[in-house]
C-alpha cells in the first residue's frame, strides 16, 4: 500500500522529562540533536495528518518548539503514555473513528513501515479498537526470557493474550530441551510483541474509565487491560525486531556507535 492510499491518522509522541533509569534521556544528544528530535522527524516521514509532542515539562516544550514541533502541554499526573494520548485527543477534538498512533519519544530509529502496517491493520479490521505489532521469535532463549513479551493470536490476527511467560507451549518439544537454548521450529507460532500502539480515538476517550485488570497487575502489561474488557486488538506482523530504543545510557551509546558506522 502506498502512502497516498494510507488511511488518515495522527501521531502523538508522549514525552516525559523524568525517567527512573535514564533521567532527561529525550534531551540527550544523538548525532548532534536530541533523541526527541530524531523521533519527531521520523514521525513526519510517516505522512500523518498531524504530529504532536505531548509533554508536561517546559524543558521538553521549549526544545520541541525550537525544532519546529507542534506541542500540547498535558497534566503532570498521568500514569502512562496512553493517558497522555487521551488528553491530547480530547483537546484536539478528534472524532471517535480517527486513528491515533502512540510513537514513544525514546524510539529514534523506529521503522516508519511499522507505523504504516499497524495503521493499515487497524483500518482494515472494523471491529478492532486498537492495533499493535509483533515479530517471529526464532531463538529458544528469547522465548523463555520474561523481558520478551509474547503474544498469541486468533485466525483473524487478533490478540488472544499477551504474557511474559513462554507461550504457546510445545508440550513434547520443550520436555526434551532442558537447556532452553537453540532455535525454535520454523513453523512454531511464537510471536514477540513490539510496543507500538495504534488506537481509535473513541477508545482513548473511554480509557480513563477502564479499571486495571488483575492480569495487568500481575504481568505488568498495560495492554491486558484492553483484552480483559473484551476490546479487540489487531496485531500486524513485522519482518523482524526493530532497533532497540533508549532506555539506559548504555542504549544511547550503542545508538551513537551505530550512527558513527553509518557516517563512516
Automatic annotation (TrEMBL):
CDD domains named in the record: CMP-KDO-Synthetase
Compartment(s) of residence: Cytoplasm; Membrane
Chief subcellular location: cytoplasm
Record's catalysed reaction(s): 3-deoxy-alpha-D-manno-oct-2-ulosonate + CTP = CMP-3-deoxy-beta-D-manno-octulosonate + diphosphate
Listed InterPro entries: Cytidylyl_trans (IPR003329), KdsB (IPR004528), Nucleotide-diphossugar_trans (IPR029044)
Superkingdom, taxonomy of origin: Bacteria
Class in the EC hierarchy, top level: transferase
GO MF, any single term: 3-deoxy-manno-octulosonate cytidylyltransferase activity
Pfam family, one: CTP_transf_3
GO biological process, one term: lipopolysaccharide biosynthetic process
Pathway it works in: Nucleotide-sugar biosynthesis; CMP-3-deoxy-D-manno-octulosonate biosynthesis; CMP-3-deoxy-D-manno-octulosonate from 3-deoxy-D-manno-octulosonate and CTP: step 1/1
GO CC annotations, alphabetized: cytosol; membrane
Main function: Activates KDO (a required 8-carbon sugar) for incorporation into bacterial lipopolysaccharide in Gram-negative bacteria.
NCBIfam families, sorted: kdsB, PRK05450.1-3, PRK05450.1-5, PRK13368.1
Entry similarity comment: Belongs to the KdsB family.
Protein's name according to its UniProt entry: 3-deoxy-manno-octulosonate cytidylyltransferase
Source organism: Marinomonas arctica
Taxonomic path: Bacteria, Pseudomonadati, Pseudomonadota, Gammaproteobacteria, Oceanospirillales
